[in-house]
Amino acid sequence: MHRVSQLLLLASLPLSLADETVYGAYIFHRHGDRTPKSLPPTRLTSLGYTQVYTAGQYFRERYVSSNATLKVAGLEPDVVNQAQIAVSAPLDTVLENSAYAFLQGLYPPSESKETLRNGTVVQAPMGGYQLIPVTEVSAGAGSEDNPWLQDASGCLGATTSSNSYFFSAEYAGKLKQTKEFYSSLVPVVNDTFAKDYVTFKNGYTVFDLINVATIHNTSIPSANLLTPQTLYQLRTLADAHEWGLAYNASDNMRAMPGMLLAAEILSAFNSTVISKGKSKLNIQFGAYATFLSFFGLADLPAASVDFTGLPDYASAMLFELFAPNGSSPSPQAEDLRVRFLFKNGTAGEGAPPVAFPLFGGSEMDVSYPVFVEKLSKFAVTTTEDWCSKCRNTAGVCAGASVAGTKSAKQDKKGGISAAIGGVIGAMVTLAVVLGLLALVMLVGGLTVVKKHKAPKGVQAGSGELKA
């Protein structure tokens, strides 16, 4: 029955999907359901564990299993090949545990027995549980315990840009217009927040506490106040609040998390191309600020206004690197294409991931060189670039600032930016990848904006690919 359902699903795919070869995929995933930020330590709930585990199972059936609907060419279906997969998450309990739960669904236990020389048969523990390393990025540690997600970026430029939202006319207007609305919610949250804390200024934290309560609490103080209309308004105000902090078209420095993600995607696909398909699957867990900032940078609101809102728990962005079958048995980089998809909420529940056009265009996929060119316009690929944009001069940036000044002069003279300087024929070189590795060690998973505490009690290379 399972095989029949797979064949029916494949038959239902558009010809362009059924008749193509996927060489690599990049998944950026949000954590599952968790306890509220305002009551640390925040932890992944049983519901959250189930959500990300279910998502892992879905992506197994999409990319990994031997009869996957969009099988990544050459990807080991049952016993993980560590050289083919890379997984990362910040030093954060909720995000790391989400990654491990996801991987249990992606590569379930494999029957593993060994017979020793003396004839003893050893059975692997936990039914053959597969150990898949999750690379830890240090910056943004404990982000899910922080009421303000944009805490501790370490990037002065990003912090300044995000905080400027609180001096904008848009913010001032919403703060004034919603004063009575938030005051009406004080009876619901006054066991956690002081009265003067419950304003639009803390719109996300107030939403987060109430949202968790509506999922888990059997009783909520003054629950009669939480009508469907009130909950909807609470959510949309949180959307506006966090979008304002994560992205601004006229000052995109606050979108640093999205800039770093763009560089990591370029690096991952570059590895896939230059290794001729040996590197196949990249999975990164991160917070919603990265989703929002990338949405803005990639001009996804042009495809749907929903991209200005908060992604639900266990949401995922997908980037698929593929080539139409028949183009070449071992396609060159210029023969490859990239498709972007988004799933709001748990993959495997409800509708499948949906493709959207990137960069304000209309096509559901773009050529790989164009993808590289577009992402390179805002990707932060080197430590020098990060230090320059952030206007940081201390620590590792003390040395980088001198080199950065020289690079800036060269860029001005030559008319080519640092990000695009490493792109030949619209492809990121291996040197960019090596520079990025150092950058990720320094600032991987950055988030932005200074923390406001709640009251107590509360790239791409040339080459060819082979299947």
Helix count, DSSP H or I runs of 4 or more residues: 17
Report the CATH architecture of the largest domain: 3-Layer(aba) Sandwich
Task: Tell me the total number of β-strands.
Answer: 10
**CATH class bucket of the largest domain:** Alpha Beta
CATH topology grouping of the largest domain: Rossmann fold
Spell out the helices and strands N to C: HHEHEHEEEHHHHHHHEHEEEEHHHHH
**By helix and strand content, what is the structural category?**
alpha/beta
Structural domain tally: 2
Q: Can you give the helix content as a percent range? A: 40-55%
How large a portion of the residues is in β-strands, by DSSP E?
A: 5-15%
Report mean pLDDT, rounded to a whole number: 82
N- to C-terminal distance:
28 Å
What is the gyration radius calculated from CA atoms?
Answer: 23 Å
Regions with pLDDT < 50 over 5+ consecutive residues? 1-16, 404-464
Main pleated sheet: 8 strands, mixed
Inertia-based shape: globular
The named CATH superfamily of the largest domain: Phosphoglycerate mutase-like
